[in-house]
Amino acid sequence: MASKNPSLLILFPIFSLLIGLSLYSVRSSSDVEILKPSPAWMGGKWILLHSSIGVSAMHMQLLKNDKVIIFDRMDTGPSNLSLPIGESCVLKPKKPADCTAHSLLYDLVSGTVRPLLVKTDTWCSSGAVFPDGTLIQTGGYHDGDRVVRKFTPCDDETCEWKELRWGLENRRWYATNQILPDGRVIIMGGRQVYTYEFFPKSSVKGNSSSSYYMNFLRETMDRYADENNLYPFLHLMPDGNLFVFANKRSILFDYKRNRVVKEFPVIPGKFKRNYPSTGSSVLLPLRLNGTDFPEAEVMVCGGAPEGAFNMSDTFHVFVSASNTCGRLRVTDPKPQWVMEEMPMPRIMSDMILLPTGDVILINGAMNGTAGWEDATNPVYHPVLYRPNDPRPERRFVVLNPSMIPRMYHSTAILLPEGSILVGGSNPHQKYNFTARPFPTELSLEAYRPYYMYPRFSLQRPSILTVESQDMSISYGQTFWATFVLNMYQPERGISVALIAPSFTTHSVAMNQRMVVLEVTVLEQLSIFTYKISVNGPPTATVAPPGYYMFFVVHAGIPSHAVWVKVQ
Question: Which domains does the chain have, with CATH numbers?
Answer without folding.
Answer: 45-452 (2.130.10.80), 459-566 (2.60.40.10)
